[in-house]
């Protein structure tokens, strides 16, 4: 298969893919990969295969194609292609919750010689790096990376990137419990979809609706949460977007749990859990198990809760997510307290405080914890976060954590 035919076939695959005939598109692209001798074409088709497998949640295949793409980029001896393929490798690892690897490949990307395309992809590299830091609960670095990504998006008028960063920021603020910001950023993403998104994939709309649902649920607006989650799920089902389906199921389960309807919550956690397991989203599994454990606690079935916690703790340690570990220790603590088991109780108290130390989740001004209950937060330009009220009441001119001098409120 020569250059022209390769190009035609890639195009044919794209049309099939866009009209939701995913399997047919994959067949066409796989054939190009087998038959084409055109290196450029092979590189492009590998990119299509990476994206398609990412959207379907087939992350191991995604990783496989990303690795082959790097070899192809090397043969092409082109810096832009090499950068693009390393970004795909970073993203595949991000999806598989291999966060340390993601960060290291992102650093490889940033260290490659600067090119024109490099400036555009830089924002996406920063986003992926931020997501990985968030996965490890390294909050300050996550925020720093998101801010960088947002700056790239603004400088390049890249609304699609901005939309994705806003969704990640929503997830960031949901985790550190500033629910107002957790809602603000995905709303901003939804606004971008409305203003610019006519030609975009519906995926962006679904993504922003999902993050809004999570924030509404945390704020206790369960009706709005349900509406957004249903909208997101509808699109996810139409597009065979398994990863988003799993997240929506998890969100539905959390909404029902918040309503006290455990009967409805349990099967949704189970369904979320089985898709998360199938696609390899271990962090999602941790979240589902945490929800299940909370349901068992509400039913006073403490041993069943401890079973779920133990499974979740193993997974959380595997992926290195400190915040989940912290939450799980906190829940264990309350269980052992009500069981009156002092030795186990103390062990979890110790581990809980270690996690607080490691996540640095406390305000450098008042010394109290961040992320324990909903409160308004503000980041400084150094990306350290504080209670908004503490910053407003404070007269100092430099960040109490790192002594950087500007006290101007940060971008995000
Ligand atoms: Zn404070
Ligand atoms: Zn600082």
UniProtKB/TrEMBL annotation:
Coiled-coil stretches: 298-329
Recorded superkingdom: Eukaryota
A Gene Ontology molecular function term of the record: acetylcholine receptor binding
Subcellular localization(s) per the UniProt record: Cytoplasm, Cytoskeleton; Postsynaptic cell membrane
UniProt cross-references to Pfam families, sorted A to Z: Rapsyn_N (PF10579), TPR_8 (PF13181), zf-RING_2 (PF13639)
Gene3D superfamilies registered for this protein in UniProt: Tetratricopeptide repeat domain, Zinc/RING finger domain, C3HC4 (zinc finger)
Primary site of residence: cytoplasm
Membrane topology: Peripheral membrane protein
Keyword line: Cell membrane, Coiled coil, Cytoplasm, Cytoskeleton, Lipoprotein, Membrane, Metal-binding, Myristate, Phosphoprotein, Postsynaptic cell membrane, Receptor, Repeat, Synapse, TPR repeat, Ubl conjugation, Zinc, Zinc-finger
SUPFAM superfamilies named among the record's database cross-references: RING/U-box, TPR-like
Transmembrane helix found in the keyword field: no
UniProt KW Transmembrane keyword: no
Record SMART domains: RING, TPR
TPR repeats, residue ranges: 123-156
Gene Ontology terms: cellular component: centrosome; cytosol; Golgi apparatus; neuromuscular junction; plasma membrane; postsynaptic specialization membrane
RING-type domain span: 363-403
GO BP terms, alphabetized: motor neuron apoptotic process; neurotransmitter receptor localization to postsynaptic specialization membrane; positive regulation of motor neuron apoptotic process; positive regulation of neuromuscular synaptic transmission; skeletal muscle acetylcholine-gated channel clustering; synaptic transmission, cholinergic
InterPro entries associated with the record: Postsynaptic, Postsynaptic_CS, RAPsyn, Rapsyn_myristoylation/link_N, TPR-like_helical_dom_sf, TPR_rpt, Znf_RING, Znf_RING/FYVE/PHD
Record-stated family: Belongs to the RAPsyn family.
Functional note: Postsynaptic protein required for clustering of nicotinic acetylcholine receptors (nAChRs) at the neuromuscular junction. It may link the receptor to the underlying postsynaptic cytoskeleton, possibly by direct association with actin or spectrin.
Protein name (Swiss-Prot/TrEMBL): 43 kDa receptor-associated protein of the synapse
Gene designation: RAPSN
